[in-house]
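During the second half of the funding period, the structural biology subgroup turned its attention to how the target accommodates small molecules. The most pressing case was beta-D-glucopyranose, which had performed well in the primary screen but for which no bound structure existed. We therefore specified the complex as follows and requested a full 3D prediction, including the ligand pose.
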Amino acid sequence: MSSRVFRWFALLLCLAFLFALPLVPQSANSGAIFRNAPIHFSLTNPSLEAKVDALLRRMTLEEKVGQLVQYTSGAPMGPTRGSEDYPAMVAKGEVGSLFNVADARAANEYQHIAVEKSRLHIPLLFGLDVIHGYRTLGPVPLGLASTWDPDIVERSARLAAEEASASGVRWTFSPMVDISRDPRWGRIVESAGEDPFLGAAIARAYVRGYQNGHLDAPNSIAACAKHFVGYGAAEAGRDYNTTEISEHTLREVYLPPFYAALEEGSATIMSAFNALNGVPSTANPYTLTEILRNQWKFPGLAVSDYTSVAELIPHGIALDGSMAAMRAFSAGVDMDMESGLYHQHLAELVKSGKVSEARLDEAVRRVLRLKFALGLFDKPYTDEGRENQGPLPAASLEVARRAAERSFVLLKDEGVEDRLVLPLKKDALHSVALIGPFADDAREMLGSWECHGRASDVITVKTALEQKLGAERVKYAKGGEIRSATDAQINEAVAAARAADVAILTLGESGPEMTGEASSRAFLDLPGRQQELLEKVAATSKPVVVLLFSGRPLTLPWAFAHVPAVMAVWFPGVQAGPAIANVLFGDGAPSGRLVVSWPRTVGQVPIYYNALDTGRPAAGVDLTRPPKDAQEKFVSRYIDVPNSPQFPFGFGLSYARIVYSKPEISVAQLKAATMNEQFHNSDATNKTATTVAATVTNKGTVAAEEVVQLYVRLEGTDVEEPVRKLVGFERVSLAPGETKPVTFDLTADAFAVWDMRNEWKIQPSRVHIWISPDSSQGEPVELNIVP
Ligand code: BGC
């Protein structure tokens, strides 16, 4: 080949490579969650950018604004609403995105208008809250996170993307990555709990599942990390309420899951309803521009939450709609969900110079880029044949059942004389009494955000137990509704328990009505007469197993003291029954672990494991009784309840007894300077600084899945660090009698602190490291970080 031909060939190769770059390259899952360095993904490539430029040049001011306008086609849920004549508005190019459109046919109808009737033929982008599945609903997100299994989260999200995209949806408002430390807050059910490390790992898994590394594949949907930021810290757990979060806590706790989701490639982000430190998150230039764009270099689209632009008026930082639009847009919200205020005021704001044209173009580019990246210009229509109206395929049900089984957290299992109540032995039982309002309620199994889930797809606990044991061995008595019961219903349930070998009680709060948005609770006990039902059934002296259906920890001190077996099953989805029956009878093993600390009483809330210590810790003091002298009194404690939660973060039993060895460390002294160099140098961030290892042994007689957890505590730093923080975890399968080594490679990340100078630094410190079954147990090994 002559050198000239070779040069041409090389140039062509380079171009082909550039143009074929995947639009969302998979980034290595480095576990780097505590950094604020620029993230490493791009939504564009040169050919795509050229198309965006060319289109932008042809757009009028009004057409540009149109791309930034989003409306729901369903029933409005917020205080204000937009116009309803969407076909006409779409034809005029006044709408960029619609959400809650019912199905592929309806989406195609709108899309034909956008593509064929609007002047520039720009396709619409259809969004939807696909939160824990589209039709094949799995466990609610808090349950799914309780699997501590990013792989099953990713597979669940992939399945959701395949089903949603078949209906024309190419954008989901998920994952919610808000850290939540307050079970009163109804939306804790949508979260991955209280921990930033776990939250980051789960967030990444959702993004991988939805986007699949190729946004332009017709079965990929764009993810949306929400709600930016601090929404989970709503004061007093009351939805939409104000939050106050220090810079240190913001950086170390609330931001990391967002950073992780965006670094994994999440194409979009949603601003939150709440005010953060006095500035509503939808008009907060510090978070939306300084952190998101200047520090992290996020290239994707920022959408507001539902009418959150209009809500700047009641927040008190805007006097009218125009001012609200101006504040939100200038702060960095590109697209206005539902308030209609960009639609009404943005063009005028640009004309009057209150908003710059450059800012407008920047926002429009982000929308167009996303539409090109999703392949919508090439393939705007959805193949209506892909939508499944028939039964759910076996492979989908398998994903939903596996996720549900792994999400259950066994909280208590104490039979008489060391014999466990669970698993139940199918052949040793003549009959079981199945009691409670959840036993045969298909709708409840879907929880909140049921999307296109159908009650008819659900297999209830009653149906599954009848299949497993034969209908004649299952004595069902509802025992009342969730919020009420008659004496006759309770008596009937007690009689059923008396006549059976064991009573399985399905108790809890209503998924659709008492969890999720606008469902904060000040009391976290059982609604209606369920507590009375429980006590009366327990008084029969039959062994009682409580299956707890909830979207948050419920405070049930009586049950935890008196009932031999309690399992939190959240809202498990369409395979609720089979998953529960499998785990109850030992055909599956409970392996979920709590992702939130479980309070004894609401008075302890907020309660979270990764807390800072006080100058007067209560260590060594018996907190189960009132203080008897000054030594016991003047420490950080309650006088009427222990400080500890009912169950700690990370907790969950299995049917086996698992024993941990004391951890060992490969290198027990590190240099702060070397760590800082590795931390800040992107080529070295994955370099192992030290390795910590332990063995875990199954001393039981049945197989188990153990979630091995790695925690650190740093002391001697210039800011206080939590008494423990999670920096690693691994699921390990153990046959009876089996011992396995578990090894964690720690990188500099694990020791980084947001310091007094507002920078990430690894400081000289003493570090304790635990490998343990939850956040409260284990013996630490020591490491020293020297100057
Ligand atoms: C919620 C969001 C959701 C949006 C669209 C809002 O009320 O806060 O999480 O994505 O509605 O349905």
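Two results from this model are relevant to the next phase. The chain has 25 helices and 27 strands. The mean pLDDT is 93.
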